[in-house]
Amino acid sequence: MIEPRLPKYRSGQRVKAAIDLLNDGSFPDATAEECLVSVGHIGEIVQVGRHTEANLPIYMVDFGKQLVVGCLEAEISAVQDIAQ
């Protein structure tokens, strides 16, 4: 059995796409391999789940315009909020 990994990010946290996020077939209104979110685009984690077979955290990230994408930790990075 694979030991569960604790999530690096949390629900409500702002993140940005670390790579171009391409359609893996889970978005029927987009063509296969179409870029859904470009690198650097900022979104907010709306839910943290777990991939049952790999036992890895999966992040549902709202990138706006009614686009919520499931992401792995390697596909996103934290946004550093700067207080003004």
In short:
This protein is an all-beta fold. Helices cover 0% and strands 39% of the residues.
Layout of helices and strands:
Blueprint: E1 14-17, E2 21-22, E3 35-37, E4 42-51, E5 56-62, E6 68-71, E7 76-78
Antiparallel strand pairs: 1-4, 1-7, 2-3, 4-5, 5-6
Q: What integer is the average pLDDT?
A: 91
Helix fraction bin? under 10%
CATH architecture: Roll
CATH topology: SH3 type barrels
Write down the secondary-structure element order: EEEEEEE
By DSSP (H or I, 4+ residues per run), the number of helices equals 0
Q: Low-confidence parts lasting 5 or more residues at pLDDT below 50?
A: none
CATH class: Mainly Beta
Q: Strand tally, please? A: 7
| Percent of residues in β-strands | 35-45%
The best one-word shape is globular
Class by alpha and beta content: mainly beta
Number of domains: 1
End-to-end separation in angstroms reads 47 Å
Outline the biggest β-sheet.
Answer: 5 strands, antiparallel
